[in-house]
Amino acid sequence: MSNEAVITVSNDPLRSVADALDTAVQAAKGGVGDVRATASGALPALGSFLSGVTFKTCYAVSYGVVFPTVLVARAIPQENAAVHGFIDGARAAIDLVNEMKAKSLSVEHPATSLPGHGTDTTP
Fold first, then answer.
1. Which of 17, 62, 93, 113 is close enough to 106 for a disulfide, judged by CB 3.0 to 4.6 Å?
2. Smallest Cα–Cα separation from 102: which of 90, 87, 82, 117?
């Protein structure tokens, strides 16, 4: 017998349709695998890109807010009425927040609140 491939021709039309469908299914599976491989490679790259954009945006905004604020705060002389007013106002705001936290904790956990807890009586 020779080394040539033996090709059998079938006259069955259903067999040829089945072979064509099988070939189509195999091609579709290969295409899905290619799409899956491409997507799995693209998603980490997209996540990295979005993470970098988010970081750079937050950095620029915070730098744009903090730097001018500190620059103005450093430019104001320390010993004057305006600075003392800012300091007193900041302390009053901190005290108010602490009182609000203490009230919130006493409402959430009434059995664990201690008398005088959260109130600062120091001048």
1. 113
2. 117
CA atoms within 13 A on the CB side of 13: 0
| 47: Cβ contacts below 8 Å, ≥ 6 apart | none
Q: How confident is the model at residue 38 (pLDDT cuts 50, 70, 90)?
A: low
Q: How far apart are CA 20 and CA 26, in angstroms?
A: 10
User: Of how many residues is the chain composed?
Assistant: 123
Report residue 82 as tokens.
């305006």
pLDDT at 106 over 90: no
Q: 10 Å Cβ neighbour count for 41?
A: 9
* Amino acid in the structure at residue 24: A
